[in-house]
Amino acid sequence: MVTVELDIFSGRPNPRWTLSEREARQLTERIRADPSQLLPLDASTGGLGYRGFIVRAEDTGMADDWKRLGLPPVVRLGGAFQPESAESSRFLLHTAESARLDLRDPGPVLAEAESVIVQSSDVQGVMTICYPAALTSDTDFTFWNGASYQPYNNCYNFASNLRTNTFAQPGRAAGAMYTGIDCARVGAAAVRDGWLTTCRTDTNYNVCLVIWPGYDYHWYRFCANNRWCHKPGGTAARNTDNSGLLITNPETCNRGGYTVFCGYYRGYNVTVS
């Protein structure tokens, strides 16, 4: 069993939750890929507000795995001074969304942590592309724009490269849809569908999530010629932003009201419905 503590409160006990077996394995893989993102428990990672996560390997099997990696059973990850751990921090934040936190309204707490994480240089302002990328055409959208299916597939279908004719929703295929419109909750739902926040070594779909605060989400997909494409709702798929310009960076293009850039995801065996 692996427990996670979001180190964010000053007076109250911090929120804690337990990772599923799958989440614990994914976390271990992230740590194995880059053990340097971890810090000792007594490391200083910020003041008031978000200070990262405290992770505990509390069962024998997981503790043994960590010991083989040269890790102590209790570690600290993330925080205001550790941008190199941004992707792993976002992963842990997403696992909190599916947990039952002992909070009346966890949304503002998770949003506070998310806001610090996405301001780091590893997430905000620097495009994160995984290679090799499963590129699709940046000009030929006939698969998506036919009259019999265009209205029934949305941005999430397009990002997933799956035409289901169900106006797919993050988390629905996994049986647990998002419960609010913000980076943490929509992102966590996508992770439940199979999206990853780390790169694979063989094939990657590169997509990213943006939010119209309180109202809606939107997804972009990396296509050929280093361009990004998207499908706004039931309208036609395209390679241009709200200014009619080709999209070379989804972080800086004209996204209209979708002002919050959440980050990047990678997919290979994603299921949507």
User: Which spans of ≥5 residues are poorly predicted at pLDDT below 50?
Assistant: none
Indicate the radius of gyration in whole angstroms.
19 Å
The biggest sheet, with number of strands, parallel, antiparallel or mixed sense and barrel status, is: 5 strands, antiparallel
What best-fitting shape do the alpha-carbon axes yield? globular
Structure class: alpha+beta
Question: What would you say this structure looks like, in words?
Answer:
- This protein is α+β, with helices and mostly antiparallel strands.
- It is built from six helices and nine strands; from the N terminus they run ββαββαβααααββββ.
- It has helices at 21-33, 60-68, 86-97, 107-118, 155-160, 183-192; strands at residues 2-6, 16-18, 38-39, 53-57, 74-77, 205-212, 216-222, 228-229, 260-267.
- The strands form two sheets. Strands 2-1-4-5-3 form a five-stranded antiparallel β-sheet. Strands 8-7-6-9 form a four-stranded antiparallel β-sheet.
- A hairpin with a 3-residue loop joins β6 and β7.
- α3 (86-97) packs across α6.
- The mean pLDDT is 87.
SSE layout and pairing:
Elements: E1 2-6, E2 16-18, H1 21-33, E3 38-39, E4 53-57, H2 60-68, E5 74-77, H3 86-97, H4 107-118, H5 155-160, H6 183-192, E6 205-212, E7 216-222, E8 228-229, E9 260-267
Antiparallel strand pairs: 1-2, 1-4, 3-5, 4-5, 6-7, 6-9, 7-8
